[in-house]
Structure prediction request, 171 residues.
Amino acid sequence: MTDMPKRKMPDVPWLTKEGYIDMSRVPIDGTLRDAAGPNRQRARDAIGVLGSCAHAGRTDAGMFLMGLLLSTADSDLERRADIVRALQSHATQPCATLLFGELRRVKSSNTTRTYLDEVIDALRRFPGEIVEDGFDDLAADTSFTPRMREKFRRAAGQTVDRRGDDEDDDW
Prediction:
């Protein structure tokens, strides 16, 4: 067996010298188009990439996802849920405000329950100092059913403490 010549890594700014992808530097122009496009699978994949970029500190990706959520049809709960899952990496006060607004705006029903659970789960992954008051306000709001208010109370006690190590950040 002969030794293969070593190939030089391509000179692209989003690859580290070790060969890993640096999501904070990945170009996202085409990804933005795909995320808003009509092809469901390409949109889902693009939304996931944008969530990874937001996790890597790309505030532009998180802001785009917030706008995408606002512009997605209320009836497209599957795409809305994909966007919400991606937004859990964009743990900012404006994003929390948007997601709490979703909990107030979308009425709970058999059709929307899974979507609303995704919103609650995403907010649970935000730092407690950003979301605990919002969950407490919802838990005290008697316009929600007792079951929903209990979900909000439980979620308030399960928020992520970002001051220490976060087990979910291993990837």
